[in-house]
Amino acid sequence: xxxxxxxxxxxxxxxxxxxxxxxxxxxxxxxxxxxxxxxxxxxxxxxxxxxxxxxxxxxxxxxxxxxxxxxxxxxxxxxxxxxxxxxxxxxxxxxxxxxxxxxxxxxxxxxxxxxxxxxxxxxxxxxxxxxxxxxxxxxxxxxxxxxxxxxxxxxxxxxxxxxxxxxxxxxxxxxxxxxxxxxxxxxxxxxxxxxxxxxxxxxxxxxxxxxxxxxxxxxxxxxxxxxxxxxxxxxxxxxxxxxxxxxxxxxxxxxxxxxxxxxxxxxxxxxxxxxxxxxxxxxxxxxxxxxxxxxxxxxxxxxxxxxxxxxxxxxxxxxxxxxxxxxxxxxxxxxxxxxxxxxxxxxxxxxxxxxxxxxxxxxxxxxxxxxxxxxxxxxxxxxxxxxxxxxxxxxxxxxxxxxxxxxxxxxxxxxxxxxxxxxxxxxxxxxxxxxxxxxxxxxxxxxxxxxxxxxxxxxxxxxxxxxxxxxxxxxxxxxxxxxxxxxxxxxxxxxxxxxxxxxxxxxxxxxxxxxxxxxxxxxxxxxxxxxxxxxxxxxxxxxxxxxxxxxxxxxxxxxxxxxxxxxxxxxxxxxxxxxxxxxxxxxxxxxxxxxxxxxxxxxxxxxxxxxxxxxxxxxxxxxxxxxxxxxxxxxxxxx
Amino acid sequence: xxxxxxxxxxxxxxxxxxxxxxxxxxxxxxxxxxxxxxxxxxxxxxxxxxxxxxxxxxxxxxxxxxxxxxxxxxxxxxxxxxxxxxxxxxxxxxxxxxxxxxxxxxxxxxxxxxxxxxxxxxxxxxxxxxxxxxxxxxxxxxxxxxxxxxxxxxxxxxxxxxxxxxxxxxxxxxxxxxxxxxxxxxxxxxxxxxxxxxxxxxxxxxxxxxxxxxxxxxxxxxxxxxxxxxxxxxxxxxxxxxxxxxxxxxxxxxxxxx
Lengths: 639, 258
Fold this sequence. Notes:
By secondary structure, chain A is mostly beta strands.
């Protein structure tokens, strides 16, 4: 299969699932493409299709690459000579070996985002290993114990901004519950010709450097016309007193970013082919550094079937927001012999990434106009008190039934009868108690085979989450510019800029896992963390501390913990925990969705459960690259 | 003598800083990551980089017809989020004579429990064509509510002489790139200093309104109008020296930073 790809160069044929499986059967040999071919592409700026590497053994080379995404020559950091790097297709149950060679003059790394692997294979310099020095090769080797759509990226410096990322697609060992005829990766990213060091320094010195939607005398006059003098002035004074700007939607915007789809700028029009009536699986990956994408395909409803690599019960929407590092798999079934635009606008609008689904190459469809630039509201400041009402529907949930609230109800399992104890996957368990060696074999991913872990009858069931840790009374200061008066779960709220747009937008409340969670134990403690920051100083952290000021968070191997995140800032933060699943408490009980990255809205309080089943030092951070660099990072130690 | 005093102020400032700039939390005091990682491993994130910053709020020619002068007012720092060394410099050159030469070297830290203000302590040197003076300086600088830039500073030198300065400005965005910036600076002195033509009390005011266009965020040419004036005894000294007490000028300059 990959040989095919190599011969045809950049063929537009999608990797059909059947052909892919054949490829696997035939080979599994070392899949090193002749990556020099990518060089020419990057310079010419024509449409590119991603190379796919399959098998068990891989060789990846990281090097700089001249590129031209914007009309200006620039330099990216590429994997095997392409940006994005090749799609790696693995198979659940295989043990894969990936030899990564660094040809950069600086250290590099590759982190396998969302993969449940031993900590030393996780690829975070300073936590997993020292990184990959210039000229050196690091060999990753680990068993693939999960399936779904993931991605990989550098965890060194700002290489994530420079193009060092690619898609990971893992074929399930068993029959895929998702049926489709075509399969495409749609990887979204943000590109700047400005060196990311400069970009970060600009933000540190003038945090609204890239905001060209500031309030001006012009917007003041418009507001007076539409809202009246009193309301306009009151609003300005209220925000002005705290030096806050409602236009603070994204720190980095289209003022410097060009948005890419599979490495293609909008004009290159990345195209995926289909035959009318076929079911097309699109694996959306937000691999950007700083951009939340709102994705839709006008005229084509999308059925979300997977989130962060885990199957969810199908839910059909018109649009969805992808936080940085999140992935969503959708099925679309275009019936007409026509082209459809895949449209991904950043939350800060201004420009977009775009591609086309078409029956034939060279077709285009209309590009929809961009939505208006959103503004932060009082709900984002925890001042509205109506944050939950902002969403379109409440599905009859009263606020004290919402997860994450005080006096939280137990995760379904504890109230339910004992989970069934039939032929359980006993790996990691001995006599019903967790084996300290469990880390060698983490709990299985929820699936048709994985059975729910029962709870040991005596000890654990009677210990609900009573210990609260880290509940800190925050005070304003250089690191904390705001502490909302009230925070609430905003799970039914699609997010700023997506309310009332006439489209059905995916929310976290819609996510219900296809399979029951594997760990039915209630949490034994609760760890509360505030997401804090000072936009003016561009300092970000947890509980007012930057990484360098903070201690690691310690988890006991095998324990079940509830994390509660409280976003005290006026921006969204996609929070990613390495190595362990984050089971979002969104009212789905034992069908809580398993995620690796959770987008927390301003003034939102979100909770999720964690099974600390894999020992090691794990990174826990905001996936906005420059927030992480500014300190929004913690080490989670499982031991 | 005055140098020693200046030094004492700086040391006192440095001591002050050692008492919590950290937010007060019920948490155990933060210590560096206590998990041993092998030597030679990098930090997973470098959140305390040393950055440098230089900006000029005034870099301009001033003219009122017969007289033209060149005026600069710039500042910069090097440091991290919590420890910075600031340099400030301002002055005016007219007919080869430099006046208003004020150069400061300050240590800077955020003020605990204030979001947008730093305190600064260090030395000020009045260095121009007039006799040189040295002061100890302590002040605050930051963003006051409603986006006002505000920086009051207190100066002390030998003989118990005290001086004060208040400066402030506001950026009014007319469009995303066109900015109107009113600015004002006031100086006070407790005792007269004939050598530098300074009287007691409120000595002088420098104010202006500038209209700049950001060709880029870091480069904005501007035009403006400034009004400066001396008061009280300072004005008397000026008249005696045959200098004007009030001056209005048209200015042309550029805002730059990096």
